[in-house]
UniProtKB/TrEMBL annotation:
Sequence similarity: Belongs to the NPC2 family.
Subunit-structure text: Monomer.
Keyword Transport among UniProt keywords: yes
Name of this protein: MD-2-related lipid-recognition domain-containing protein
Main function: Catalyzes the intermembrane transfer of phosphatidylglycerol and phosphatidylinositol.
Keyword annotations of the record: Lipid transport, Signal, Transport
Organism: Chlorella variabilis
Keyword Signal belongs to the record: yes
SMART domains, alphabetized: ML
Length: 146
């Protein structure tokens, strides 16, 4: 094989790997709530085991929020691996005025978290139990060490 052929093969392999490994996290709403969810993202991407990951959820609210409940759960290859439930106002500054906001949630990952695809679900309810938002964020933990 010539040097030119080697470069072509290497370029095609790199393109195939990049196609299998998206540059950003994928998101979708998982239920209709009071907030209009307009986006979701993860930093850094890809995520690395043993480091902090930051999840961003972009929402528009029609009314102010003074409190509520935030639930988070994470699946790895279809298996439930993490969940938490707590005061929404510990995760976001309350009261949250009506309008457009980027809600930020931080989590330190264990060093032993296996690489591969994960699904994070973020769901918030107000004090009356009414769903504010639900978003699924698909993300990956990188294969290479940090």
């Amino acid at each position: 094989m010539t040097a030119a052929n080697n470069k072509v093969v290497a370029t095609l392999l790199l393109a195939a790997l990049l196609a299998l490994h998206p540059a950003t996290a994928d998101w979708r709403t998982c239920d209709e709530g009071e907030f209009d969810v307009t986006g979701g993202d993860v930093e850094p991407y890809p995520v690395r085991a043993g480091e902090e990951v930051v999840f961003h959820v972009n929402v528009t609210s029609g009314a102010p929020i003074t409190g509520g409940l935030l639930e988070v759960w994470v699946d790895y290859l279809g298996f439930h691996v993490y969940s938490s439930q707590g005061d929404l106002c510990e995760a976001v500054a309350c009261p949250l005025a009506a309008g457009t906001h980027t809600l930020t949630f931080r989590q330190s990952l264990p060093k032993v978290a296996p690489p591969g695809p994960y699904l994070g679900v973020f769901q918030a309810r107000n004090q009356g139990g009414i769903l504010l938002f639900c978003i699924d964020i698909n993300f990956r933990i990188a294969v290479w060490p940090a």
